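re: that chain from earlier
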Amino acid sequence: MGRPAIDLTDFDLITRRFSEDRPSAVLHCAAMSRSPACQADPPGAWLQNVEVTRHLVGLCRGVPFVFFSTDLVFRGDRGGLDEISGPDPISVYGKTKLEAEGVVRHLDRHLIIRTSLNYGHSSSADRAFNEEMVQAWRSGRTLRLFTDEYRTPIAASETARAVLDLVTIGASGIVNVAGRERLSRWELGGLIAGLHPGLEARIEATSLRDYQGPPRAPDVTLDCGKAEGLLGRSMPRFSDWLRESGPGS
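^ sequence. v structure.
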C-alpha cells in the first residue's frame, strides 16, 4: 500500500481495512525516516514511528508481523554491529524506531529487520538516498559528504528479496539485512555520481569533526552473518551490485 492509498495515522480506517482484508502477514515498512524531519518534529516522529506501529501490533495478534527498523538504533562508536549489540540511539529517528521495536516484541510472531541506506527508485523520485543526491545535483547544489561516517548500503530490491525469503522460512526475532561493504558517505557519493555521467555531480569531502548540527552516528555498519546463515547466501557488496546491475536498476 502506498501513501496515496491509505493514511496509517487514520486508526479507524486501518482497523476497518484490516478486518476487510484479513491479511495473512503484515510487512510494516512505512516510517517518518528522514532524520532532520524527525529532529524538527519529535511528536510527529513519535506518532508516525511508534503509535502507528503500536496500533498495527494491536491488530496483529496471531498474524506474522515484519517491522523494518534501522542501523540508527546504534550510537555509532564502532561498526560491525550484530543482533546482540546494545542499541543506544542518539537521534530522534533512532529513538522512535527503537521504541517501536520494543512494541513489536510483544507479538509472538514477529520479525524485526534492521537495515541501512536502501538504494532504489520511488514513485516520487525523492525517497531513496540516491534520488536525494541526484535531485541536489540537478538543482546545481554541491553536496558536502562525510569521509568518516560509515554505513552498509544495500539495494532495496535485495532487501525485499531477503526479507521475503526470511518470512518464507519462518525467521523471527531481530535480523540485520544490509550490504557487506562498509562505505563512507563520500564513497557513496562517488559511486552514485558515476551512474550519472551527464550530470555535473559536485561533491566536497568533509569530516564529522567539522560538523555542527544534530547528532550523527559515525559508524553503524551492520554484521549480517545471521541473515546469511539463515538464507544460505552472502549479502551483496553494494559497489559490486551497482556494477552488475547498472544505473537503471
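The radius of gyration is 18 Å.
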